[in-house]
Design brief:
The protein is mostly helical. About 65% of the residues lie in helices and about 0% in strands. The longest helix is centred in the middle third of the chain and has 23 residues, at about 35-55. The radius of gyration is 20 Å and the shape is elongated. The two termini are about 40 Å apart.
Amino acid sequence: MTLTIAGGALVSAAGAYLWRTGAVPNDVFVLPEAAFLAGTAVGVAILVVGTMMGAFPRLRRPLGGVALACAAASLPLAFGGFVVGFVLVAVGGGIAASPGPPVAAGTPASPVPGRAPPWT
C-alpha cells in the first residue's frame, strides 16, 4: 500500500511536470501534451487505488491487479513517474496481488489459546 501510494505520487508529479513543460527528458516519447495530462490522471488513480488497499484489505488482490495495470499505463503517459514511480507501483501492486503464505492442510487458521498461566 505504501509503495503504491509513493509511486502514484511520483507518477502524478511526473505527468503534471511533463504536461506543464511539454517536453520529455531526452525526447524519449513524442506525444501531445494532452497525453501527459492523462498521465497525471493515471497517477491520481494509482493514489486512489493505494488508499483503497488500506481501507479495504479484503480487496487487496484485485486492487493490486488494477495498480499493476495503471503502472503499465503510466509508462507512455507519464514516463512511468520517471521510472522510479513505475517500479514502486509495480512492486507494491505485485505484493498486494500475490497470495498470502501457504497454509498446511488441516492447520487451523488461528491457534486456539490454551489455559492462562496461574499468575494471571
